[in-house]
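Morning, I've got a small favour to ask if you have a moment. It would help a lot if you went through both lines with me. I owe you a coffee for this, so here goes:
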Amino acid sequence: MDIVQRKSAEMKLQWNNVLVLLFLFTAAKCGKPGDDASVAYVDNETSTKALMPNEWHSKSGKCDWQGGSGSSLISRVMTSDCMPECPYHKPLGFESNAVTADQISCSNQEQYTGWYSSWTANKARLNGQGFGCAWLSKFQDNGQWIQIDLKEIKVISGIMTQGRCDVDEWMTKYSVQYKTDDSLNWVYYKDQTGNNRVFYGNSDRSSTVQNFLRPPIVARYIRLLPLGWHVRIAVRMELLECMSKCA
């Protein structure tokens, strides 16, 4: 990558950081659904579904649009006087197969032959059942990852994980990386202290653990990097896309 391309990539990353800040700042203009207790989820606690809060009204008046996600959601931050937080989380489509096999990849993918060919990254789908119901990492170390290409820049507001359906194997903690363009370097999702955030995962094979992203990630590519596991790195998952809606 030459100097001009590098500068362009750095400017693009900075611009996306600005968009995230705008997204969060503008959220203050809309009302909230009360405190976290009024929303039917708790970070890092098990649940079988991503539960949504009831509709709520803007303090600054009614919006003339509903729905919206991804880059269209970001663009509306620039033009709308009313921009809520992320009270609506839409499953991206791992479970429904709307996320296709070519969008999901993993480390050492070329080595998934024989028995492992039934446990590829494409099998990392929430609530998958039967033989080959999860992604099983062929190697058990901190150099492994599973990656999702969203095909376009989207606003991702949460991650849901499960363990392997038929054996007691699961991922106990992980970190997250993202980037907006294939030519850019991976960026770690940080906590409030500026350190790489550690997301706590599963403690059994079947429960679903939800981790909500505050702030959400604005990116095209997302990676989960296992940091801990029970017996073996085993993942079924879903990403949640941020949906905005003012009533």
Remarks:
- The longest strand covers residues 208-230.
- The CA atoms of residues 9 and 184 lie 6 Å apart.
- The chain has a mean pLDDT of 77.
